[in-house]
């Protein structure tokens, strides 16, 4: 059994009008439904950019990637950008192996994510 993934909405966003979520644990089939619910609840009323800090997400399987794609679509449909920050080496490897690295904007640090959002 996996360690549940925890979604935390950080109250101090990196940029004004941006939702910052921090993920911790493992994201897989066993907890994907809960992750989907928690993430969409955190961004439900938001119509701006979303930054997801993956620093403490130690594992993600294809089910988790599907949900991240759903989040990306929801954010883009509202006119926002989704930036993933500092994926763990295992998560980064999955992004590269699946080709999904092209679907996501990925930054190594929160500061670089903030800089990218300021540049637009």
Describe this structure as you would to a colleague.
Helix content is 39%, strand content 28%. It is an alpha/beta fold. The chain has one domain (6-118): 2-Layer Sandwich (Transcription Regulator spoIIAA), CATH 3.30.750. Strand 2 (18-27), helix 1 and strand 3 form a beta-alpha-beta unit. Helix 1 packs parallel to helix 2 (62-77). The radius of gyration is 13 Å and the shape is globular.
* CATH A-level architecture: 2-Layer Sandwich
Q: How many distinct helices? A: 4
Q: Residue ranges: pLDDT <50 for 5 or more in a row?
A: none
N-C termini distance? 42 Å
Largest sheet: 5 strands, mixed
Count of structural domains: 1
Q: What helical percentage do the residues reach?
A: 25-40%
CATH class: Alpha Beta
Order of helices and strands: EEHEHEHEH
Tally of strands? 5
TL;DR?
The chain has 120 residues and is of the alpha/beta class.
Give the helix/strand layout.
Blueprint: E1 6-10, E2 18-27, H1 32-43, E3 49-60, H2 62-77, E4 82-85, H3 89-98, E5 105-107, H4 110-118
Parallel strand pairs: 2-3, 3-4, 4-5
Antiparallel strand pairs: 1-2
Give keywords.
Transcription Regulator spoIIAA, 4 helices, 120 residues, five-stranded mixed sheet, alpha/beta
């Amino acid at each position: 059994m996996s360690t549940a993934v925890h979604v935390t909405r950080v109250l101090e966003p990196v940029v004004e009008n941006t939702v910052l979520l921090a993920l911790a644990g493992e994201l897989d089939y066993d907890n994907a439904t809960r992750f989907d619910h928690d993430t969409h609840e955190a961004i439900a009323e938001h119509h701006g950019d979303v930054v997801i800090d993956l620093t403490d997400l130690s594992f993600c399987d294809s089910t988790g990637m599907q949900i991240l794609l759903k989040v990306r679509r929801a954010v883009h449909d509202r006119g926002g950008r989704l930036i993933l920050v500092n994926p763990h080496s295992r998560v980064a490897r999955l992004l590269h192996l699946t080709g999904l690295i092209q679907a996501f904007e990925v930054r190594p640090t929160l500061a670089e994510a903030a800089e990218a959002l300021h540049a637009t």
